[in-house]
Structure formats: structure tokens, C-alpha cells
Amino acid sequence: MDKLQLDQHISQQYNADLEKLRTQLLEMGGVVEDQVADAVNAIENADGGLAEKVLKTEDEVDRREVELDEACTLILARRQPAASDLRLVLMVAKATRDLERMGDEANKIAKMAIALNDEGESPRGYVELRHLASNVLKLVNTSLDAFARFDVYAAMKVVRDDKDIDREYKSSMRELITYMMEDPRSISRVMNVMWALRALERIGDHARNIAEHVIYLVHGMDVRHISPAEIEKQLEAKL
User: Residue-wise over 207-232: b if at least 16 C-beta within 10 A, else e?
Assistant: First the structure.
């Protein structure tokens, strides 16, 4: 397992500050992961109460984002980190933003759940939604686990699997567009499901971003905008 070993410092407080960054990011990730799962359950079960819970969770996610941003800024100002320490701080700052945006997408799904609940009918597309949601949640969980263990192989799995999410999303959208053309009365309801599918696809993209940040953290490689095959080729050259 390819893991990063962070430097240990004479200042125990510095070590504690870096470890706290990791813990806070993983805690925020857990909150967002639950938020996404609750949003999907809300739309599947027409549960307006659960959807409202998702919307209220946004305040906590925003608060955690601000706290992590402040913590990263303080470490940069006080410690002037270098090498792997600097990459950790920068990675946390970037991943925090991705998690916050995941929370925003979960909110969109919750709002679609409320709209569908008000309409009172179950539209076409729930099967596609459930399957995509299951795969996206796995992606989010694996990306956070990759960070927790500094695991480049797990991060690469997320990068590869995000391509499958994109294909599944496009396939589901084509099916639903065809269905709406055949039954125009369904357009309003099915559009809400399509927006939820779009939000899930975006959550998958943010999970991939976090995985790419992990690769940067461990190897110092900026792999944004590079194909999975090229990333693997560069990683092989590093090993």
C-alpha cells in the first residue's frame, strides 16, 4: 500500500495541528456523506421531513468549511510548512471546497424531493436514481478512505470509476428524455428526477477531485485534466 508518511516535528503542537486538519476534513466528509444519502432517501420515499433535515444540515457544512479554511490559513501563516506538510494543507483546503459543493448538490436533491412530494405522484426514473446514487456514494466513501489512508491505489479507483458514473448518467438521461417525449404529461415530474441525477453526477465529479488531491498529496503530481490511463502511466514512473 502506497502511503504518505508525514514528517514529525519538534513542536508537538504542530504535529497536533496537522493531525487535527485530517480529522476535521474526515468529519466534514462524514457529515456530507450522510447528507447525500439522506437526500436520496428523501426523494425515493417522498419524505419531506428528511428533505428538510438535509437543507438544515447545510448550515453545519458551511460552518465546518469556514473552520477548516481558518485552520489552514493559520498553519500557513504560523508554521510556513514545506514539502508534504504544505501539500497536506493545500489538499485539505481544496478538498474542503469540494465537500461543501457536494453539500450544495445534496441540497438540490432535497429540494427536488420536496417538489415531487408536493406533486404527489411517483415519476419514472427512480430505478436509475437509486442505482446512480449507490455508485456515487461508494465513490464518495472511497475518496475519503483514500485520504484517511493516503492510499493512491484507492484514489485511482475513484478516478477510473468516475468515468463509469458519467456513462451511467448519460444513459439514464437518454432514457428519461425518450420517456418524456412519449408521455409529455410526465415532463414536470421527470425533470425533477433528471435534476437530481445531474446533482449526483456532480457529486461524483467532486469525489474524483478529492481523489486527485490525494494523488497530489502523496506524490506531488497535479493530475487534473489528465486521463486515467495517463495518470496511471505517470504513477508507474514514480514507483
Answer: bbbbbbbbbbbbbebebeebebeebe
